[in-house]
Design goal:
alpha+beta; single chain
Length: 108
């Protein structure tokens, strides 16, 4: 990335999980020192369990949620170490990618 943009490299973690697991995942975010996250409920998609529609049927626990968090690279390993065991036991997927931010102080 061109240095003239004045961006800082960090790690973005996106997790798509059932509504019942949202609080466990957001607790993990806090425990490793993440200062915030974005949650999008009612996510639709096709996966191993078939097609999931994004509409809320009864409550926010009956649907999929996508959580996105950006952390400094030095925190990413700790977060992934916490997330993997939960995702091995429960339904869900995790995507990890490099990202660049313009205001790194928001994420530290």
């Amino acid at each position: 990335m061109d240095d003239s943009w004045h961006l800082t490299r960090m790690t973005k973690v996106e997790v798509v999980i059932g509504g019942d697991d949202v609080s466990a995942i957001t607790d993990m975010f806090s425990q490793v020192g993440a200062t915030g996250f974005t949650a999008v409920s009612g996510v639709s998609g096709l996966g191993h369990s078939g097609y999931h529609q994004g509409r809320l049927l009864f409550n926010d626990r009956s649907t999929l949620t996508m959580l996105t968090v950006v952390v400094p690279n030095e925190l990413a390993g700790m977060l992934l170490k916490e997330l993997r065991p939960l995702l091995e036991r429960r339904s869900g997927v995790m995507f990890v990618s490099d990202t660049w931010v313009s205001r790194p102080e928001y994420f530290q």
